[in-house]
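Late entry, evening session. Most of the bench is empty. Finally got around to the prediction I had been postponing all week. Sequence below, unchanged from the version circulated by S.P.
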Amino acid sequence: MNKYNIAVVGATGMVGRAVLKALEERDFPVGELRLLASKRSEGQELVYCGNSYKVIELTEEGFLEIDIAIFAAGGEVSLKYVPAAVKKGCKVIDNSSVWRMDNGVPLVVPEVNPGDIEDENGIIANPNCSTIQSVVALSPLNAAFGLKRVVYSTYQAVSGAGMGGCKDLENGANGLPPSTFLHPIADNIIPQIDVFTDDGYTKEELKMINETRKIFHDPGLGITATAVRVPVFNGHCVSINAEFERRFEIKEVFEILQSAPGVVVCDDPKNNRYPMPTVIQNTDSVYVGRIRRDESVKNGLWLWTAANNIRKGAAVNAVQLAELLIKSKKINGRMQKD
């Protein structure tokens, strides 16, 4: 069996640790595993498949003899080290926003646009966590009825801001001031994620708009968004209002979603069943519910989605992209034989 040398950049962070868990759970054919992080994390030990691995300081030399590097350390690190990794012969899967809108870098969700991976030139971008769960739900409906317009309203967990976001929620419950968010998040809702731009949108909202258009290969698709932080540790929810070009029956929508890859339909109003953060913990699917027609517009539809933002929204999607690379036979050399 062929095995591949893997580097995880930002291995000690929340997403980095989830990448290790996903590699193990999905039985990824790992040859050498190299855990890279900042100097302050050097020497820490993490467990993978029952074995302990020491974290080493991130340097350009850390990518020598590596087949796939999964970056989960933020934009500044990606901007500095991704080109260096590619130069060393790595295929890079990057979780930051740095490369997502680069015309030469595919932005891929395996259930939606796996073929785009063929256009990689060393870098594949992992989309925003809320974008991932939204397009997984919308993609089969877009194929069937043709998307005309989308309105996103997100309800994003504090883990989307990393360990600092979780600390703010924990500390806030004890009356301590925030250090990551601009306002207290405990017992509060913050209608701002990332910084505001001149048009009044936040960068997080623009990410969802622009990334959806790129993934669907539809630069003219009408999309708008409001991104909100809520006092939940893990699990993003997105309210999606979609308008389609062609008419549909609600029965058809259910049938399409029930057979869609990566989707679990959780919609039983009579028994008060719908997607919630408590439902999707330790799962990798996008849960869809509250499916109903929007009678205020022609061919309008409401959906409510929930997904694990650390797993499917980041780590698992990245590992799925690594699996796609292997299947497409786009990795050359340095493969080990059992």
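Two things to note before I forget:
DSSP finds eight helices and 15 strands in the chain.
The helical segments are 14-25, 75-87, 129-145, 163-172, 203-215, 250-258, 277-280, 311-327.
Will write this up properly tomorrow.
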